Amino acid sequence: MRRVTVTGSSDVSELRDLFIFEGLTDEQLAALCAGGRIATFPAGELCREGEPAAFFYVLLDGEISLSKRSGARDIPIWRACAPGSYCGAWSAFLLDETTTYENTATLTKPSRLFELDATTLGTFLTTQFPMATHLLVGHSHGRYHQRRILGPHDRLVQLVQMTAGLTHELNNPAAAGMRAARGLRTQIAGMRHRRAELPDRSLPPEAMQSLVELQDRVAEVAGKAHDLTSVQKADLEEALGEWLERHGVADAWAHAAIFAEAGLDIDWMERISAAPCCSTPSSLGPVVRWLASTAETELLLTEITDATTRISTLVDQAKQFTQLDRAPSDVVDVHGLLESTLAMRSHRLGPHITVVRDYDESLPALPCYPAELNQVWTHLIDNALDAIGASPGTLTLRTLRDLDRLRVEVCDTGPGMSDDVLARVFDPFFTTKPFGEGTGLGLDVAARIVDRHDGSLWAESTPGDTRFITSLPIGP
């Protein structure tokens, strides 16, 4: 039980100067005072979100901090020390015993408060201001139904967007892996038949050893990455095809394509032809076909490895985007958050979109709620891509340090916004999209999240250069 010091009955003159009671008559203010008390409360929790809303509190001196429950944590949303600031039974006018506190209120230091019974306040409002109370009740019920209907819808929209991007990106490497696996199965079956074409086993041991060594070296080279351009690869394939044709190798151009992809050049062909296992004119063709099968097998294994690695990377990026395996708050690299968000939205980055990353790599790690900031970047990037539309355009992500703050800019080369639109762009339910294509809540949600991080979010726009700028404190 928290110790409360009652400092006396409510004083009409002390309450008269508070803005919240402005406009009340002396009789009305006296009626409120009769149903409340002035008390000094110690620092600590004043009321808990979800508990029955028993009292309405008005601050006389001290400081109140409000927080809202999100998942398993309380997120600070408001702090005030101005006399007249209030909290507690916001919806006392409903006169509903099941009404609960909408926020958790905490006193950051010992504070003097005017404590008023919720039923007393509700009765006062309904009798003294009946029309205003009817409007408040209507607004309260409307807001409740709005949250009940739009809340799951908005969460579903975000889930659908993330799932669409993730499945699109996972489909490509998964299809590549399946294709490579089928090719590998066919290739292994073919190698079983080609083995019979190899030089006679009665060859000297050094000749057979040279074939084994060539196979190992070809597999090693084919398994490495090669930085050949498409033009260089085409030139190499042509040179290899001509060489193999001159030496009477069947299916020369099919083998040439494989060797070029594996990075084996003419010097390698000369090395193969000079090996002891190719000591007779008839032995070169079977050896080349065997080594081509070896190279193709390695290329298929590399494709499968790359595809599965890409899938694993996408899953990691999805986990980073949703922060499913992280603590609610963390100290993270903001560039990692931006990149994971880009990965989730990559299905929208068509060939007409140029992405420019202008990152300040010297920026320190940022203390934040990573999953929430990923929502901010998602809304801002989607907004930029919507502005660019189907026309060629550039999406620029820029980070820089501004004194003790970290600044993130999401820029697009769309047509820009008029002054009227710019003034309302963060208003809830405001959208320039056709009816049914947008809720107008994305930027409002982004602004609220940034505000919870003690940051600021604003927009600057001229034709061809629109910027949404987020400024966040670097310190905790």
UniProtKB/TrEMBL annotation:
Residues 20-125 form the Cyclic nucleotide-binding domain. Residues 300-476 form the Histidine kinase domain. The keyword Metal-binding does not apply. Keywords: Kinase, Transferase, Two-component regulatory system. Pfam families: cNMP_binding (PF00027), HATPase_c (PF02518). One of its GO terms (molecular function) is protein histidine kinase activity. GO terms for biological process: phosphorelay signal transduction system. This is histidine kinase. It comes from Mycolicibacterium obuense.
